[in-house]
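Amino Acid Chain and Its Fold in Token Form
===========================================
Structure side: the spatial fold of the chain, written down as a series of whole-number tokens.
Position: the record begins directly beneath this header, with no further notes in between.
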Amino acid sequence: MRGKAPRSAVIDIGSNSVRLVVYAGHKRIPAVIFNEKVLAGLGSELSTSGNIGTKSFDRAIQALRRFKILCDEFQVDTIDVIATAAVRDAHNGTNFVQAARNIGLDIMIIDGHQEAEYSALGVMSAFPNQNGIMADLGGGSLEVAQIFDGRIIQKTSLPMGVLRIEKWFDEGYDIIKAKFQKYLIEAGWQNINGSTTLFLVGGSWRSLARIDMDRKNYPLRVVDHYEIDSHMVGNMEETIFTDSSQDHYSDLGISYSRIKTLPKAAALLKAVAESFEASQIYTSAFGLREGLLFSKLNDEERRLDPLLITTDEFARTQRRFHDKRADPFDWISTLFDNEGTSEKRIRRAFCNLSDVAWMANPDFRAEWALEIGLHGRWSAISGRERDMLGQALFSCFGGGAKLYPNGGKLANAAEMRRAIIWGLSARLAQRLSGGRIETLSKTRLLSNENMLILKCDKDYLNLIGESVSKRLSQLASFMNKDIQVIEY
């Protein structure tokens, strides 16, 4: 039998795809343990027949049969099955719902406002304390919501999915922008003065982000929290047409069915960005499904930091000692009196992970730890912060005082220097104490203008052996300080 950690599943039935995601672990930010989608295209015939096409209908139902068996095998505790624009708007949508019920799955059809709310909550989960506009592009609809001060101020759903705008797309961009603004007005949307931050949800827009990352030679392969240059949005549609190699896009992880809709997605992004005068544009890997989970949390649970939870949950299964206090955060804090809140948070995440690579081959620990920091499934972390996190882990596990290969392209030199000190000081703490917080508590690390000072209980002075002295010297040398060891 499996452990006590609860498991939940969300089956998301959209206009393009039917997807199953199974979650386990901390309910604030549960880990994804299974993720599969079937591109059924339920909304592909809506604009012409008003129905879900027969092939799409059958393909989606077959996917649901498979998903139901998988959920049973995973021993999922709760299953939420949600359907959006395609099932909601199709004449034969009720037939689809009944076919799913026959399998044992009860579909909750959510209206456009609910869809906008859940997607906005997903963004709020991944971007805590951020204000701006959430825009979720699907096949059948475009949901828009304004987030301010932890609340959803206004929300609406527009019939402008990538499968529905073919006729306007052929007429040109100006028509698409005019339609978008017209629908907003008809929905009673209140004007937003000045520039704003735009959060993009949906596979089509994440695909545009991947293309933008490729063209910029972006050093990370993480689309979540990626910032698209607002000045480049206007050129996206044109460059997609001129650089439409299917093989290349496939190498970026973009499916053939998605490639066909990218020019329309680019035109819609331009219309949304210009209409809201977007000054910053971020992609979000969190959307409707994560928002549904977030909606079930109380206020206290929502305020928990998703980055610190995920790094601690990951480390729980990897570190040598299960006591979560067995990390060097407090011990090395004396070196960082002037640290800002943002950097302190990343240092906390690093210290959560500072014992995760000890089982790796010693010759590759630094590289393994670097990969964990750069490409781990972390939430609420920017590319710049991943650069720092990866560097700290690289230095901690043997990379030394040098930048990791191709490091420092997102964080600046001062930030990377700080991350190296995080790594070297944590590496010293581990060697000094053997990774045990009880042993580490018998010592203190201090710093003044010229000196790095290690204080040690008189009964523990013999801890400072040759290997400890080497790591202390490495840290002091990088900080341009002399060393002093004091008994207390």
Observations:
- The two ends are 51 Å apart (CA to CA).
